[in-house]
Amino acid sequence: MPAAAAATLGDAELAQIDAQWRAANYLAAGQIYLMANPLLREPLRPGQIKPRLLGHWGTSPGLTFVYAHLNRAILEHGLDAMIVTGPGHGGPALLASTWLEGSYSQLWPEVSRDEEGMGRLFRQFSFPGGVPSHVSPHVPGSIHEGGELGYSLAHACGAAFDNPGLVVACVIGDGEAETGPLATSWQASRFLDPRRDGAVLPILHLNGYKIANPTVLSRIPPSELDSLLRGAGWAPSYVEGDEPAPMHQAMAAALDAVVADLAALRRHRGGRPWPMIVLRSPKGWTGPATVDGAQVEGTWRAHQVPLARVREDPEHLRQLESWLRSYRPDELFDDRGRPTAPVTALIPRGDRRMGMSPHANGGVLVRPLALPVVAEHVVEVPEPGAVTTEPTRVLGRFLREVFRRNAEQANFRLFGPDETASNRLDAVYEVTGKAWQLPPGPAGDHLASDGRVMEVLSEHLCQGWLEGYLLSGRHGLFSCYEAFAHIVDSMVNQHIKWLRVHREIPWRRPVASLNYLLTSHVWRQDHNGFSHQDPGFVDHVANKAPEVVRVYLPPDTNTLLEVAAHCLRSRDYVNVVVVGKDPAPNWLDAGEAALHCAQGVGIWEWASTHPGREPDVVLACAGDAPTLEVLAAASILRASLPELAVRVVNVVDLMRLQPAGEHPHGLGDREFDAVFTPDRPVIFAYHGYPWLIHRLAYRRTNHAGFHVRGYVERGTTTTPFDMLVLNRMDRFQLVVDVIDRVPGLLATAGPLRQRMTRTRERHRSWITEHGEDLPEVREWRWPRR
Amino acid sequence: MPAAAAATLGDAELAQIDAQWRAANYLAAGQIYLMANPLLREPLRPGQIKPRLLGHWGTSPGLTFVYAHLNRAILEHGLDAMIVTGPGHGGPALLASTWLEGSYSQLWPEVSRDEEGMGRLFRQFSFPGGVPSHVSPHVPGSIHEGGELGYSLAHACGAAFDNPGLVVACVIGDGEAETGPLATSWQASRFLDPRRDGAVLPILHLNGYKIANPTVLSRIPPSELDSLLRGAGWAPSYVEGDEPAPMHQAMAAALDAVVADLAALRRHRGGRPWPMIVLRSPKGWTGPATVDGAQVEGTWRAHQVPLARVREDPEHLRQLESWLRSYRPDELFDDRGRPTAPVTALIPRGDRRMGMSPHANGGVLVRPLALPVVAEHVVEVPEPGAVTTEPTRVLGRFLREVFRRNAEQANFRLFGPDETASNRLDAVYEVTGKAWQLPPGPAGDHLASDGRVMEVLSEHLCQGWLEGYLLSGRHGLFSCYEAFAHIVDSMVNQHIKWLRVHREIPWRRPVASLNYLLTSHVWRQDHNGFSHQDPGFVDHVANKAPEVVRVYLPPDTNTLLEVAAHCLRSRDYVNVVVVGKDPAPNWLDAGEAALHCAQGVGIWEWASTHPGREPDVVLACAGDAPTLEVLAAASILRASLPELAVRVVNVVDLMRLQPAGEHPHGLGDREFDAVFTPDRPVIFAYHGYPWLIHRLAYRRTNHAGFHVRGYVERGTTTTPFDMLVLNRMDRFQLVVDVIDRVPGLLATAGPLRQRMTRTRERHRSWITEHGEDLPEVREWRWPRR
């Protein structure tokens, strides 16, 4: 233990840092318990205790310890630093520390840095109408709530990318260290560029316990822990103990060494492990040692509220008061409740306070992306269906220009789990590589230490890095196989919840949206099969706050470009864009695409028949594969039933289907009825699970007329067209649906219906024998206008 | 490299193992390419090549190499072994290996072990109507499809639990090793008991590349890799190279050493690292070295189909034929296409063939759980609402008896991410502990090396372990905070997909269902707040195959016991049970609960008014918190509007709401109308997102009459009742909804409506001031019958 080896701190500094720490611990405990009498000017009375004791003491003293020491290091070394705190329920510690440094009162003036403000700080915590126990958007300097565990280190890395002067300290709880996302986050050491990026400083806090169990990393032999961390590319220093004075010396020494190591790493441009700290201290450190005869400090019993019956049990009340007074509040706060000079001596000023780091309120730093002109990338579409392109390949060229135009401001990255090339975005490699600090491979790998494409086979890391990158004021796009976006379901939940709250906080400025490009989608899993078929990510996000969620299903390349440009300009959203990567026909030229995307939903007159008439049936579609089938069905109907008035409607902005009162993009009822009619049958071919359309449209006048086709979990390894047949969304089935649902049509269209049904059957037997679609399916072409 | 150190294999054995490997490689490549001419009896012609070349060669030769060597080790040491193959698209290798050993033809007799069968084996692969490219349920000996990456090691551990004689070899791809779930899976070394459990043998296969990128673990310095693995509790042996003969020697020696190490580990009852193997071999090993001038073998270009234009390009065709002939098929297969003696010499027989392992077809081993009698655990309910219990605490006592009654057959485990005690199931600790091989902590930790409760702060590990445990023929329950079940969304997708296919395979026997207990649910997040509020896991699974998915929302303790017993008896399902852990009133006595659960949905006459009359309004509820509010609203209506006929309906089996044609549990339309009426307003209080009810019931006669309340993402840290108010599902709002929707009622009930609205407002201001609910809310009691 290096603790007592050399006195890094002089006596005065030691006293100051300890005062700062005691003050923060006092404030953390006070928040959990006190509704009144914040400075203990009188003996504690039960009525001054909150009626519901909610909060988590266990992790707090470790976090305040780290915060105080980072403060000292910032002053000592002139660091530009921010902090990410992974352990759950670290709220009290961060609220205390930011109140002490003054950032809290600066941003929330009603919680002033005096006795009255301290009273408010205490009362509001975990109180109805107050603030939650996590490090929520409400907390100055936070980009990481920590309500769900495991994402701290990924967020910290995201914030460090392209911020070469920044140190992102990241406290990792030993509980969250057991999660998968955190376990693989250590590999970030292979992706951080010491020249171009900032430093991430992991501080693994081993306090020994999670909610009710010891933690793995705190119990394995220290030699194994050291081996594990070194194997992941880190060089740990250890700060271990429970005596405050030697712990202060050890932590200060460790941080000084880290600063020196980081400087050396930058000088040598990598090639050595990144420094980190392992902090081993008791859970609930400095809190009640034993309660009712059971050990609390240093065990899982310190996780939440160490003294639980303070209002009812005079002994608990007495113990609480003695615990609070053990910090000697009269030394820490003056008679007006302001922190005293020793407490604030080692606290930085201005934007160097971690609570005021602009990187943690990225909206104040965000610079708009310089976007290429969409018109320079659009596909010429002389006739609908005449030209075939791979939508994502064209988008890749657009993104290449995004990289090119923003090279100097260095604020855009593309994230993907080993799929950028598979998703056909590889034009970007003409201007940037894939970030990679390990030995390069053969030519053609496109690896570069300063690459701006982040490829790692972990959706969790892609998502976490991107979130950190966005919240610190930059832009990005996550391209992912559609089915495997579910891997980050829970992460996107947390990000949407963060954004919903962040939007309500006056001092938080809008940040760039989180943009998903979901491709390699359910209808094109020719060689991947059933395990890769799941269009439900849209359903998942559609449950979330409508203020934040947007879903786009561009039917072709030009609409994709419009949607992508819109998403890259937007703020404070989660945008989900679903589109295929395979060659597909184009329907709209540049002007039509721009108009269609602006409207979000539109009648395609050119594909409809008898445009002057009220339609007999509406063929609606959302998604590229359904659009193709609907147009094919419409062409069959046009040829075979020329008297039938068919209206083709395409939906590119899915949230247009929701009522206007439910979603900001929702169509008004009158507009909706104008498009979908109040009473005609609507055959709706949808990209995903069909019931999502019902869930979005169930309040509409004509909802009972909606008949939706989509993916119904009938999948295997087969051709794209056969997938449609298996799920009954193929053109032939859609024609059958029309015939079955337009009143009286069966009488005249019986033979057509029979032909359609027979074609479906012939296809099934043909494909099983030949391994290919029925020739007439493959040869189908959209008839020209 | 230990390769040439000592000749583990004699000349004959070396020739035999190489013949087996070559045969498997030939069969793997043949599956990707050939529709005919499987034994190359004539020169290859383009028409014999499949029209669509789908498949993945890159990983295959490594997998066949491992399989052949495991075969030798099984024979040499009399092992009982099975194999889990993590790398994606390993299908060709496993299909080849099981066909060679005869298990494939035994289970799929039409694919016989002769020329005709080989032709079928080739043709069916990645062919419409054939078999997928993953190691799907169709493949003998598989419990792990590998379509989504990262779960192999967790599945292998699950299979090893409670199987002391078993060796579960687990090939881990270096791509999947980058995923979070795999990264934390290494920590299984802390949970496997060498006395009680089987051995897991990880074989980390570093072939250097994933789809389009090098892999992290293949490029870090070997010393770091070694450090990483040792730090995670494993002792790696290395088998590295590309020359077949020394590689065979090295692999055989490594496996012999592993067997010796495992024996020693068992003898010493732990205390040392588990052995594992690192296999470093080229991607696409033995395939085309270069194609069209570019290096293929040993690069990412070997990932899928190394020669892509075989039908069109004569040079590719020539190269394919020469590649296939390089395995010397005439030595490997006799004139009838059967494997020759050298090929089969080192293949085990009978159930020792890995394809025939009963552990990989768990249904043949599964023994029903001996379940305690529900009646011995039920709560006495003299009057509805008179008795309050914590539902999960009572369930914990039931589960304690499950452990007790099945102690001998040792086939039940409880899984939870550090939440078993928090979820109040801790009665189980009276009979078993938490599995833990590290140093024990202070008393009260309930840690035990042979504990049957699996606690680790990783939902991924809980899920993966449980899946492996179930598929190998055992039983389990996963208790999880409701919001964080989303962490395993994608895993449960894969498991449901597995079960759907498994149910269609004649030789697969039913396995125990995967049971979720989701508690600490959205309505009771008093100290956790917004980040812990998400009832959407039910929505997620409701999208999946109805053959597999079941969702239960027991309204109280006795119904929970009935549901839990039912789930633990069931087979081949994923059962999701959502219930609170906090003290809550009981409504149904034992008999009523049994009947109600058998029906799944029922009219609660005792809570309704004017039972003889057609109701004026239906108050429906699903979930414990909504049930309480509906009953409270019904009691207000009964007191204030005695003339109103109110019917109270409770739904415990959510899938009863779906049409009978959509889900096996769906109510017939006539029954549905009888319960919910064809035309009266239905005020439905639902536990989760309200639109799920619409999505399930949109085809019902009275759907337009449904008005659903639920969670609408309005959450924070506040009281449970305030959460209801914020989301407008509180009793007062429900009364308002009734008044607003029953035609003509407003005329008489205006004053009541006003009183309800005012009470809601008073509550909001009261709680903000006092931190507690309005006293009249807290004091509310269900009036006795």
From TrEMBL, chains A, B:
Protein name: Probable phosphoketolase
BP term (GO), one: carbohydrate metabolic process
Database matches in Gene3D superfamilies: 3.40.50.920, 3.40.50.970
PANTHER family, alphabetized: PHOSPHOKETOLASE-RELATED
Cofactor: thiamine diphosphate
Keywords from the named record: Lyase, Thiamine pyrophosphate
HAMAP family per the UniProt record, alphabetical: Phosphoketolase (MF_01403)
Domain Xylulose 5-phosphate/Fructose 6-phosphate phosphoketolase N-terminal: 11-364
Residue ranges occupied by any Xylulose 5-phosphate/Fructose 6-phosphate phosphoketolase C-terminal domain in the UniProt entry: 581-782
